[in-house]
């Protein structure tokens, strides 16, 4: 009887071990099946991106030899071409600077078809600017690109007040609007400097209050933490931004001020004026059509912005995934939702 009990105990132990091994194998098989399913879903979800990403990689490799020259040209474009007309900007880029770089004793390769907008911005940014009231012509888009990328304080030459309208819409209630000479403007400026606000000084004349000289030149003191405004040392936040504006069509500023600022010519171009006049005529004759066009344009721009955001989120999720992300169900599900939404928007665009 004792012998039978011992055999029963051994067999029971073997059975329990075999059952546990079976359960473990089943769990591993289920996990593998889930991983394969997630992998298939992930591959299926990203299949449409394969062609675009492969093309982007090829383009990046082609740009390796011209990147330094392209950056040099774009830097010069932002720094020096803001005040010129559309034609003069194009002529300087294509007929002067590009040939010059190629004729040096040690030539600097550049992309001959280089477009500054392609390197400095994208469709989503341009769409957002247009929704904020920026005219849709090429010159206005270049101006906005220069303004958002320049290191020196931008000075808008804006006789038709279209640039300032866009700036006020863009920054909204976060914008501090001042005029030189208004009561208490230096106190407001001092608080904005410390708080890291965006300040617009509008309607400048040919001469500027000398007390603003250190600010225009960013002459910081005490390890960059303060700037002198008059006799007072004002705390200076690195987040502070200054935008200058004049209604003068042909201002004559001192060379020092021109060196301290990036002048940007927001004067309405012929193309821009034609578009605006056409819109004005249509709004008078067929206000329903003009309203429909305006709403559709804003909707299309909104789709472009959303599409860019979704694409950025897609890449961000993939790049930030740690370890074996094939086991991250939430990640794959989020990617599927992102791709589905992006596909729907692309159809509408």
Automatic annotation (TrEMBL):
The keyword Hydrolase does not apply. GO terms for biological process: cilium movement involved in cell motility. Residues 128-345 form the Dynein heavy chain ATP-binding dynein motor region domain. Residues 3-101 form the Dynein heavy chain coiled coil stalk domain. It is found in: Cytoplasm, Cytoskeleton, Cilium axoneme. Keywords: ATP-binding, Cell projection, Cilium, Coiled coil, Cytoplasm, Cytoskeleton, Dynein, Microtubule, Motor protein, Nucleotide-binding, Repeat. InterPro entries: AAA_9, DHC, Dynein_HC_stalk, P-loop_NTPase. GO terms for molecular function: ATP binding; dynein intermediate chain binding; dynein light intermediate chain binding; minus-end-directed microtubule motor activity. GO terms for cellular component: 9+2 motile cilium; axoneme; dynein complex; microtubule. This is Uncharacterized protein. It comes from Eleutherodactylus coqui.
